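Journal club side-thread
Mid-discussion, someone asked how the predicted structure for our own chain would compare to the paper's figures. Pasting it here so we can look after the session.
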Amino acid sequence: MLIGQGFDAHRFAAERRLILGGVEIPHDQGMLAHSDGDVLIHALCDALLGAAGLGDIGRHFPDTDAAYAGIDSRILLRRVCESLHSRGLRVHNADMTLIAQRPKLAPHIPAMRETLAADLACPVERVNVKATTMEHMGFTGRGEGIAASAVVLLIEAPDTSALSAFSAA
């Protein structure tokens, strides 16, 4: 078993879509970032990479590389998962927390869980997403941005042939 932890934060920016956990959330601002700014997926990627001892998201997908400008973070997550699968690892479970004063995220959590479970190739019951506020304290509490944390447990895959079908999709 391998445990990894990840964290990410981005500030809000006008004229950007808000994408969290691969789901577009109706809001008047999105995240300022080189990619689509999905802080939840970025924290999750860092947790996955950390558990496998493979560094962090910036090492694999640097914001200095134009190839990742505006990229859908789900693509990055799938690439991380492919790397894990090629090493005989799979996600046993993932637990994540979004930290945001606004917008209200609870209604969107079921869709996030479904989306992330599909990309992680694991049952939705093993993907947990929570949301909390900071009670108006700090940058998230003032509504300046959103942060996310993630913890994952990886296990050795007894049979990677089932995972190779996912990688081909």
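Post-session note: The chain has a mean pLDDT of 93.
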